[in-house]
Amino acid sequence: MKRIVVLAILVIFLTMVVGCNSQKKALNNSSNASTENNKKSNENINNQLKEDSEMEQESKETIAIYKDVSTVEAKELIQNTEDLVILDVRTEEEYNEGHLKNAINISHELVEKRLSEIEQYKNIPILIYCRTGRRSGIVLDILKKNNFNIVYHMHEGISQWTYEVEK
Fold this sequence. Notes:
It comes from Oceanirhabdus seepicola. The protein folds into 2 domains: 1-61; 65-160, Rhodanese-like domain (Oxidized Rhodanese, domain 1, 3-Layer(aba) Sandwich). The protein is 55% helix and 12% strand. The protein contains 5 helices and 5 strands, in the order H-E-H-E-H-E-H-E-H-E. The chain has helices spanning 2-61, 71-80, 92-97, 115-118, 134-145, and strands at residues 65-69, 85-88, 104-105, 126-129, 150-154. The longest helix is centred in the N-terminal third of the chain and has 60 residues, at 2-61.
């Protein structure tokens, strides 16, 4: 009888030891999986924070100004803005009839093809105009799309210009 009791106690003890070991392994496996998931989650969060930081840095570096201005405001810009580039987007014939002093002439139809000629002005104030403001509005969109940062659009056009022009 003593042998049976000792044997029963031994079986119960071994069952408990083996059972506890299995639970430990299961907990360890679960814990390892949880740790892996946490690592991946932290990695994703860190990547997102890095991307957000880079985007924030880029936005700080490239603050763009696109503004419609009247002919009066354009005159003030010409008088008060050092290094202002003036871009006349009318045809060559219209340009020759009269244009703003020091204006560069590139027809609105050719601006995209001739961007290389004005790329050096991406971070310099540019005043664009045409006869009525329609074509220069089209060019404004082209310049925005190509990352020109400071663009003033004389939305009334030169037809409303009451100041001196060059021929």
